[in-house]
Design brief:
Number of helices: 10
Oligomer: single chain
Helix content: 25-40%
Number of strands: 18
Length: 379
């Protein structure tokens, strides 16, 4: 059981393992144009519909820093006999400040993957996999990792992981406390700019959303008539590179490497873009929620089977043999083994018309898409 907001690496894991995905429903915040992820009710429905499920995957927190009610969902999943696996890519820093959301392991997760390079300062592509104490499959997990990892590890990477770990252990509370103060300053200043807004802890409702990582600064430019793509271009001209764009907003990160100088540069760039622009009452664009996936077959089966490339416009109703993702945040719109629905096509057309480039398909223009050969599943 996985959320629709699962990273493309989760889909790759399904291809490697042969597991069949079942998707939980996710809530979408129309006002802020961000996904809130699944809630307990979503998980209950998925388990009831698929009582033989073996594990559940959660993304916690989301790219936007939103932490769902993982504690309640993990407890319910364990009650039903499922393993709880968490993609905590953006949470390696959470345990070092009490105002951050709880770490996934504190919430009862069995296994947690953290992208140490994202928020903890190690070199890009380095990460850690943590298991709870007494997890019964730790040896099996280690053996599985050995299958896909190199026997010639890059020692710069390993050293950077150890260095990042040491820095967090010795100076984590201090460094992340400073980052949190900077983030609060940035958010206050941006919300004081006419036409701009950045949600904060107000998004926490205590049931669906139980925590928020304030170092994630989602900046909405709709009040000055700009969508996320236009805002990103403007910020880049000001020397600011943002993390991602969607709808009418961009996402900026305040990390333990930031200073008052870099924080002020972001504020000044936002102010420069907004100054002189008329206030707008209606949003220039809207981030549509991801289409509901319709799984037709195990991703591994389709990936390994005969495929053909056909025109994208003629693909409705066919079974996708490749994954289509807009990156970041790296969440698939369409994954191998899923039906290509009209809703998927509409979403993809919308994103591409607004300048987003697809990641994953062999044809980067998506004039064609690879699908399962229609006679490949007969017999």
């Amino acid at each position: 059981i996985i959320p629709r907001e699962a990273h493309k690496s989760v889909i790759s894991g399904l291809i490697l393992s042969g597991a069949v995905p079942v998707y939980m429903e996710s809530l979408f915040d129309e006002k802020h144009q961000v996904s809130l992820g699944p809630d307990v009710s979503s998980l209950e429905k998925a388990i009831k519909a698929h009582p033989s499920a073996k594990a559940v995957v959660f993304t916690y927190p989301t790219y936007d820093g939103i932490a769902g009610n993982l504690e309640a969902m993990a407890a319910y999943a364990h009650e039903k006999g499922l393993f709880v696996l968490v993609d905590e890519a953006h949470g390696a820093h959470l345990g070092f400040q009490p105002d951050f959301p709880k770490e996934a392991l504190q919430c009862g997760a069995d296994c947690v993957a953290q992208s140490t390079h994202k928020m903890a300062g190690s070199l890009t592509q380095t990460s850690m996999l943590h298991c709870r104490r007494d997890f019964p499959l730790s040896d099996r997990l280690a053996a599985s990792m050995a299958v896909v990892q190199s026997t010639s590890p890059h020692y710069w990477f390993l050293a950077s992981l150890d260095s990042a770990r040491q820095q967090l252990a010795l100076h984590g509370p201090e460094l992340l406390g400073r980052a949190l103060e900077l983030a609060r300053y940035v958010r206050r200043e941006i919300n004081a700019i006419p036409g701009l807004s950045s949600f904060g802890r107000d998004i926490v409702d205590g049931s669906t959303v139980t925590g928020f990582d304030e170092t994630k600064i989602t900046i909405d430019f709709s009040g000055v008539g700009l969508d996320g793509i236009e805002a990103e271009k403007g910020l880049r001209q000001q020397g600011i590179e943002v993390e991602l764009i969607a709808g009418n907003h961009v996402l900026a990160l305040i990390t333990l490497g930031d200073t008052m100088e870099t924080a002020q540069a972001l504020i000044d760039a936002c102010r420069a873009i907004a100054d002189g622009r008329p206030r707008c009452q209606s949003a220039p664009s809207a981030e549509p929620p991801l289409p509901i996936p319709q799984v037709a077959a195990a991703p591994r089966m389709v990936w390994n089977g005969p495929v053909e490339a056909i025109p994208f416009e003629a693909a409705c109703g066919r079974i996708a043999a490749e994954t289509v993702t807009f990156y970041p945040p790296g969440i698939p719109v369409l994954a191998a083994g899923e039906f290509i629905t009209e809703a998927c096509q509409q979403y993809i057309r919308y994103k591409m018309a607004h300048g987003y480039k697809p990641n994953g398909p062999a044809d980067g223009t998506l004039r064609t898409i690879r699908v399962q050969k229609e006679d490949s599943h007969e017999g």
